[in-house]
Amino acid sequence: MCKKLTLLPVLLFCFLAHSQLEKDKALHFLGGNLYGLAGAGIAKQISKGNRFWTFAGAVGGSALIGLGKEAIDSGKGGSGWDNEDLLATVLGGLTVGVTIDLFTNHERQKKTICCQAKTKCAILSIT
Fold first, then answer.
1. Mean pLDDT of the chain
2. Cys staple from 58: which of 8, 36, 100, 110, with CB 3.0 to 4.6 Å?
3. Is 46 helix (H, G, I), strand (E, B) or coil?
4. What is the pLDDT at residue 127?
């Protein structure tokens, strides 16, 4: 019963906070999430799982698509440049980058690197 009473104010707050956002900003945030995920995936493959480059790929991917979208909007017949839209897009990518970093098992990666280093050392000492 106590959990239900605690959940009610949280849901009410989320509903009120959601109603304060413009739909356009929410779509920019979602677009930043998607392109940030793509950028992080590409960067992770290229850098072989490096944490920094995976995060940079997420933020960079969302920033790149945000800048492109705002450049198109600022052209003839567009709605004009909007820094808040760009910020919402980049925050989407930032959110994906932090989430990927939090849920990636970094201990397993360290052990794999150590095992590979020991194997190379063992091979070098045999030859």
1. 80
2. 36
3. helix
4. 42
